[in-house]
Amino acid sequence: MKDLGVILLNMGGPTSLESVRPFLQNLFLDKEIISFGPMEFARTPLAKFIAKKRAEKVKENYEMIGGKSPIAELSLQQAAALEQRLRREYGDGVRIRVEVGFSYWHPFIREAMEAMERDGITNIFLMPLYPHYSKTTTGSCFKTWRDLHRSRGNHSFKVQSVKAYPVQDDFIDAMNERIDEGLARFPDQRRTNITLLFSAHGTPVSLVEQGDPYSHQIHESMEEVMRRRTDGHSYHLSFQSKVGPAKWLTPDTVDKTKQLAADGVRDLLVIPIAFVTDHIETLHELNIELREDAEHAGIEQFEVMPALNDSPKYIEALASQIIQRMARKSRILQSRHPE
């Protein structure tokens, strides 16, 4: 293997207040993430209408976290750390390039593909920054890549990928390391009474009924995290970020927080288990909106665990999967074409 190009896949986020509306429009144009049912024929004008209607309110939320999403900068940090790790693994004999590819804003997946083409990279590894597979996230990214690949007629790429890694060792260790950091924010005398609330992005129940594995993989991650812990904290799972009138996974994170407060919980650590990079769902929805709801409900100390971002253990989780898959591919090729 002479080269290796990794593309880190995620949804992206607006890089300015002016980009909020086009970002939302791109999101609502994605058939994999939102169904318009019998109105599918009108997706483009509907996407434009919804984006325009929601943009001003969403801008207000972004203003509260600095006027933009930090996901681009944080993802580039993840890419830089992963590139360094892979260069240490493969040495000077393999050209390494790691790019970020987003679904709904720059840098787009298309831009990452073009960068690999310009650099002459032939071995591509698609690495989702979604540990849990859903057709609305990883599935949508993979489809975008396939469609671009076909439309460009580029047959030089040899593509490998990881679909999901809900219980991968380094990922679970990274989660527990972040949980420990969150627990350390509480005074020693209160630490034994902390309740853990795992919060994941919700999906429509209809997706689960169609066989989407996302919610099951979220449960697997949570249970594996807790299996490795020895501190005995009570823990719960909830789902956030509901959009539209359809029935979504429950319990809702806000409702669950209020219920826990009513049950006497006073110290709560929220764990964004499905979000590996901080963005609007962690920084605003959890750390601002949910914090207000929790305090009004009677929670005395409320903390949100930072996302994994460029945690060395998380970078190792990504690297180890790439290294293992590429080694497996090499062994298969050698067995087919022995010297």
Main attributes?
disordered C terminus, 48% helix, 339 residues, Rossmann fold, 11 helices, 4-stranded parallel β-sheet, 8 strands, 3 domains, 14% strand, single chain, alpha/beta
Describe the secondary structure blueprint for this structure:
Elements: E1 3-10, H1 20-28, H2 43-63, H3 71-90, E2 95-102, H4 109-118, E3 123-128, H5 138-152, E4 158-161, H6 169-183, E5 195-201, H7 205-209, H8 214-227, E6 235-240, H9 253-262, E7 267-272, H10 280-297, E8 301-304, H11 312-336
Parallel strand pairs: 1-2, 1-3, 3-4, 5-6, 5-7, 7-8
Helix pairs in contact: 1-2, 3-11, 6-11, 9-10
Explained architecture:
With 339 residues, the chain is an alpha/beta fold. The protein has three domains: 3-12 and 70-164 and 312-336, 3-Layer(aba) Sandwich (Rossmann fold); 17-63, no CATH class; 169-304, 3-Layer(aba) Sandwich (Rossmann fold), CATH 3.40.50. The protein has helices at 20-28, 43-63, 71-90, 109-118, 138-152, 169-183, 205-209, 214-227, 253-262, 280-297, 312-336; strands at residues 3-10, 95-102, 123-128, 158-161, 195-201, 235-240, 267-272, 301-304. The strands form two sheets. It has a four-stranded parallel β-sheet with strand order 2-1-3-4, with helices on both faces. It has a four-stranded parallel β-sheet with strand order 6-5-7-8, with helices on both faces. Strand 3, helix 5 (138-152) and strand 4 form a beta-alpha-beta unit. Helix 1 (20-28) crosses helix 2 (43-63). It is globular. Mean pLDDT is 95; it is low at 333-339.
